[in-house]
Amino acid sequence: MADANIISLAITLFAIAAGSLFNNVRIPDLATSANKRFDDQRDLIRSEVARLDQKLDRVAETLGTVINDHEQRIRGLEQHRPR
Fold it and tell me: How far, in Å, CA of 73 to CA of 78, rounded?
């Protein structure tokens, strides 16, 4: 009975050691994978910010055009208003 316990303990310790070694080998892979994901997300966010910046510029131009048009209309109405 003691031999069976020693063998099962040895197998358990071997499994733990093998698992630890396997996981330690995979840690750099995990770091590389995580860095790639972060880089991909950073690139995605930068492209989305650039796209939104362009869209905001177009809206600002349109708004400026509309405001100038309204100012010209108001000036025209003020000039034609009877006094």
Answer: 9
Instruction: Tell me the torsion sign for CA atoms 65, 71, 75, 77.
Output: positive
Locate 12 and state its tokens.
Answer: 């358990």
- Name the token pair of 21: 């070694």
Cα–Cα distance, 14 to 34 (Å, whole number): 30
Cα of first residue to Cα of last residue in the chain, in angstroms, is 117
pLDDT of 68 over the 80 cut = yes
3-state helix, strand, coil in the chain (%, to 5): 95, 0, 5
